[in-house]
Specification:
Layout: E1 2-9, H1 17-31, E2 35-41, H2 47-55, E3 60-62, H3 68-74, H4 78-81, H5 86-89, H6 93-102, E4 109-113, E5 129-134, H7 137-146, H8 150-173, E6 176-179, H9 182-191, E7 198-199, E8 221-225, H10 231-251, E9 256-260, H11 266-269, E10 277-281, H12 287-290, E11 295-298, H13 308-315, E12 320-322, H14 324-327, E13 338-340, H15 344-356, H16 358-375, H17 378-391
Parallel strand pairs: 1-2, 1-4, 2-3, 4-5, 5-6, 6-7, 8-9, 8-11, 9-10, 11-12, 12-13
């Protein structure tokens, strides 16, 4: 089976949300014996090592360098062409030529992750084209518009409209569209009527995200994980510190907050000056940091889809205090595994209740881990994916 696989970032190592998803589906295709031609963008010096690793497994890897600061300027040409700024941001002659070359003989499958990469697949032929939206990127820009000042509101609202028009075009020209949750499917059908997407959730590497015990656990420590230059993460953790942390420190003077994730912005780095807050920057692996905490938090205000940070914390045996936005992609969650908290008062109270009752926190964490292991293993997602490919005639 010949596959052309396109994604925004080099899909390795699986250390952030999109890389986790793309790596696991790519690995699954390779394990099935597919001949994979991979197109993506390299953004960091360390990506060269990942490209070398992937080149040893894939038939071909093309990964042009993407400088986000420069691309922000070049993307402004979209204001002249009338297109979404996202499209020129991710445009590449090198990738365009590579995909055209790979598809001279139509492949069995073109699998695209993220709508911005669909521009490379639209002009070429394949036996089947699958667009893995995960969630509609246009809705992310609409959320930004709703919380921005006048200039940001205009730019983000324009991007939401133009990108939705492109997503609509892609969905109607691909053989299958894939979203990550039932909530996303409902939104998709509202925004792109007449196209019924598959629901294919993310999975969790439950073997990797397994607690090593309570030896390092501190009963009044909470943890937040994520890439810390991603605006929803920056907004969520900074809001939590500004709105909830003082209340928690008054009740628990030894309370600690671990902010664990790469590329912290100056705004996130400044949190380290707040008593009790640690900002780690990039770490080799996150499980040891989960094992230092009693509670995980996901106070995201700008969020859709399935949040890996929530599932990973639950797999590690931690109770999670989550905003409704961060939990909406999980569907029906068993009682006693997750605390939903909307607003500062409810969020601080949810964390405080678990700080005050370590035995309750541990029992909730055990129940959460059992549910994730039963429901969210990658193997279940791969089985659903394979059945979907069979419906497309791809075996």
């Amino acid at each position: 089976m010949k596959v052309v696989y396109l994604c925004q970032r080099v899909p390795y190592p699986p250390d952030r949300g999109d890389r986790i998803t793309t790596w696991h589906f790519l690995q699954h295709l390779l394990s099935r014996g597919a001949e994979v031609h991979l197109g993506c963008f390299a953004e960091e010096d360390r990506d060269a090592e990942a490209v070398a690793f992937l080149s040893s497994r894939c038939a071909k890897v093309v990964a042009p360098r993407l400088d986000r600061r420069w691309r922000r300027l070049t993307s402004l040409r979209g204001l002249l062409t009338g297109e979404a700024l996202t499209l020129p941001f991710f445009r590449s002659r090198e990738l365009t030529r590579a995909v055209a070359d790979w598809c001279r003989t139509p492949p069995d499958l073109i699998h695209v992750y993220s709508s911005s990469m669909a521009q490379f697949a639209l002009p070429v032929r394949a036996r089947a084209k699958l667009m893995q939206f995960a969630e509609l990127d246009s809705d992310k820009w609409a959320q930004y518009a709703a919380t921005s000042g006048p200039l940001g509101r205009w730019i983000y609202a324009r991007e939401a409209r133009r990108l939705l028009a492109f997503e609509d075009h892609v969905a109607r020209n691909f053989d299958a569209s894939v979203v990550v949750s039932e909530v996303e499917r409902e939104l998709f059908q509202q925004r792109i009527p007449g196209v019924l997407p598959w629901v294919l959730p993310n999975g969790v590497d439950v073997e990797h995200f397994t607690s090593q015990g309570d030896g390092a656990r501190h009963p009044h420590t909470c943890v937040f994980t994520g890439v810390m230059d991603y605006e929803p993460n920056v907004d969520g953790v900074c809001w939590f510190v500004a709105s909830c942390w003082a209340t928690l420190r008054q009740q628990f003077p030894d309370a600690r907050l671990l902010v664990v994730g790469s590329r912290p912005t100056p705004r996130v780095q400044a949190l380290a000056a707040v008593p009790g807050v640690t900002v780690t920057g990039r770490v080799p692996t996150t499980p040891p940091w989960f094992d230092r905490a009693a509670v995980a938090i996901a106070p995201l205000r700008l969020a859709r889809g399935v949040q890996n940070k929530v599932l990973e914390a639950m797999s590690m045996g931690l109770p999670v205090v989550s905003s409704p936005q961060a939990a909406q992609g999980l569907g029906a969650v068993p009682p006693g595994t997750l605390t939903l908290a909307d607003g500062a008062e409810a969020t601080a109270a949810g964390v405080a209740a678990l700080f005050a009752a370590p035995e309750l926190a541990r029992s909730m964490g055990v129940a959460a881990a059992a549910w994730v292991r039963e429901t969210w293993r990658w193997e279940r997602m791969f089985a659903n994916y394979d059945r979907g490919l069979e419906r497309l005639g791809v075996r």
